[in-house]
Design a protein that fits this description.
47% helix, 12% strand, TIM Barrel, alpha/beta
Length: 297
């Protein structure tokens, strides 16, 4: 089946590595980009929530994006976070993303000011008109305080060809079914939660915008490919194997646990910017015990 825009099946919401002074470690960012691409990622999302985007300056975002693009060397898609609860700001960021020659943007449902469905339509219509880039909507009610309804998604998908998909971070399978019924066939749905990837794929989702793919990228890719080739039992078994890790990656606010896991693997240093705080020693032991068990199972 044709799709509007092919971002692949595994999009990694990439963390932003920091040094001990909590400044961006661009060398580690370059190394991590290469690692992710060689371990199952079809695309990387820069400066999203997992990348601690709300704590980055505009200058840092641009330098980080340049670093990721250089390391990527056109081997995978590069998607830029262009979300804001201010429509004008989101449109400006979308235009900037196009100028920076990224492959697509991800834009979250406006948070804090809690627009109604009509406000969401106005917001994303303005973004879609401001850029020629593919736009992926990000619906995460737990962070925004509001939920974009399937009929709203469908209205936008039908009106704008460059609104190409949605990252759905909500454990509402009926909403996924309704989107598949209401939206054009070529519109892509991505799970925004690793543990919901396989259930959503059974309803027609394309893949996942993943946190766990930092550590288990190849395994997640295998699960998706097995499902799509009819190896349903193999996909289910991989889902069950990875499920304890999926849950542990959210034992503390994202991306704190996954950064600790990456540091445990020697890929980055274990630092986050405030207001986030690093895991305690006891929490790290608990996390590593589960991850090591999953990796060797």
């Amino acid at each position: 089946m044709a799709i509007r825009y092919d971002a692949g099946e595994v999009i990694t919401a990439m963390v932003t590595p920091f040094d001990k002074n909590r400044e961006i470690d661009y060398n580690k960012a370059e190394e991590l980009t290469k690692y992710l691409i060689s371990h199952g990622s079809d695309a990387v999302l820069v400066a999203g929530t997992t990348g601690e985007g709300p704590t980055l300056t505009h200058e840092e975002e641009i330098e980080l994006l340049s670093t990721v693009k250089r390391a990527n060397a056109n081997k995978a898609k590069v998607i830029m976070n262009a979300g804001s609860n201010c429509t004008m700001t989101a449109c400006r960021t979308a235009k900037l993303a196009q100028k920076e020659d990224v492959d697509a943007i991800l834009s979250v449902v406006p948070y804090y000011n809690k627009p109604n469905q009509k406000g969401m339509i106005e917001h994303f219509s303005a973004i879609a008109r401001s850029t020629d880039l593919p736009v992926i909507i990000y619906n995460i009610p737990s962070r925004t305080g509001v939920n974009m309804l399937p009929e709203t998604v469908a209205k936008l998908a039908k009106e704008f060809d460059n609104i190409v998909g949605i990252k759905q971070s909500c454990a509402d399978m009926d909403a996924v079914t309704e989107m598949k019924l209401l939206c054009p066939e070529d519109f892509s749905i991505y799970s925004g939660d690793d543990s919901l990837t396989l259930p959503m794929m059974s309803l027609g989702a394309r893949g996942v915008v993943s946190v766990a793919s930092h550590i288990f990228g190849a395994e997640i890719k295998s699960m998706i490919r097995n499902y799509k080739t009819g190896e349903f039992l193999a996909a289910l078994n991989m889902h069950k194997k990875l499920y304890p890790a999926f849950r542990k990656f959210f034992m503390a606010p994202n991306p704190v646990p996954v950064k600790a896991a990456l540091a445990h693997r020697g890929l980055i240093e274990d630092y986050v910017r405030r207001p986030l705080v690093e895991l305690t020693g006891e929490e790290k032991s608990e996390l590593f015990k589960v991850l090591d068990s999953v990796a060797t199972d």
